[in-house]
Design a protein that fits this description.
There is one protein chain. Helix content is about 45%, strand content about 15%. The chain has about 400 residues and is α/β, with parallel strands linked by helices. It folds into 2 domains: about 1-180 and about 365-395, Glycogen Phosphorylase B (Rossmann fold); about 185-360, Rossmann fold, CATH 3.40.50.2000. The longest helix is centred in the middle third of the chain and has 17 residues, at about 130-145. A 7-stranded parallel sheet has the order 3-2-1-4-5-6-7. It has a 6-stranded parallel sheet with strand order 10-9-8-11-12-13, with helices on both faces.
Amino acid sequence: MKIAFDGVRLAKKPMGVTNIGISIINTYARLCPEHTFYILTNGDLHPEVQSKLQLRDNIKIINSPLPVFGSIGFLWSILRFHRLLRKIKPDILIAPNFFVVTWFLPKKMKLILYVHDLVYKQYKDTMQLITKVQMELFFEKSLQRADIIWLNSAYTEQEFTKYYPAIAGKAQLFTGAGINPGFLQRIAQPAIRSNPFYNSIGERKEYMLFVGTIEPRKNLAFLLRLFKDLEPGKYQLVIVGDPGWGDMRRHIDEILHEKDYPAGSVHFIGYVSDDELIALYRDAAFFISASLNEGLGLPQLEAMACGCPVIAPHNSAMIEVVHGAGLTVKGWDHRDWQAAIRDLTINRMHYIEMGYARVKEYNWEDIVIRLDNHLAGGTTFSGRMAAARQLTSVN
């Protein structure tokens, strides 16, 4: 079977969506050597993508940029992508980036569309303008063209069915996501790792950790306000992630410059390598998120895999990912969050062990085998993520 993969994001620095795509390629190509995988890109792979992608004999990279404006993936998707597909004639196209330009797609080719969340419907105002425009133009058309809609969590499936009932009733829905196998392999390696936080301050201090793009939906203003109300001097706050978009950074700066705010204890260290991130997770007192909505919560899973206990809001996919393995907090009362931090501190080892157990439920091998069996006509989409058990009972 020929399987094409929309690799338009692979020429850029890998973050959440891109890492999911890399996980799918690596796992699928390894488990199914009888298939040939064609990765279609508009430029050379980003060096970090190259380091994460496990190239095999059954993976073919086709780099075919446009002669001008070659770095603009949107134009490439319109002008070049469908031509490559017609030349390769794949049986299946996996589109891991929410949408694909459906114009001129081969009719006989099956489309598997990966949906990471429903932010476009739930929190549209938090999105970048260009992303909103692209979603307006192509998301629903991609859903209508898709043969299989791949949803990353039970929560995302639930929301998708609510917002797109007609499409959900007609298309095949498949649910599942995991933690990057390459990331897990790095955790298991005994290599010496450098913690960029300790490197920057020159001494070891206890810190709480946030990982994610600094954008409105992550609700960092709440986290900063909460941090001020904690026991003075007990923790540092380390924030890892790219600057993102919107006016979030301006709002953050306003908070940091308020009178008596402990700004010297808040550290923005930007994007880090996987090895540095693993060191940050391992050394942290705990991972904390205040996000308004998550389709999955990959940093939460990564933290658990590194033995870092997790506190998160009791909302969205955090219920199935974190609840019962870490602590989830209902509402935004600082006293409730402070109580959760005390509970986690007292019972830290318990939550670390529960986190290790939860990570085992998010296994890419199980997910890919289930998908491939279905494509081969062997089974239906059974055995959805065990976390779905929680959605109605704890919501």
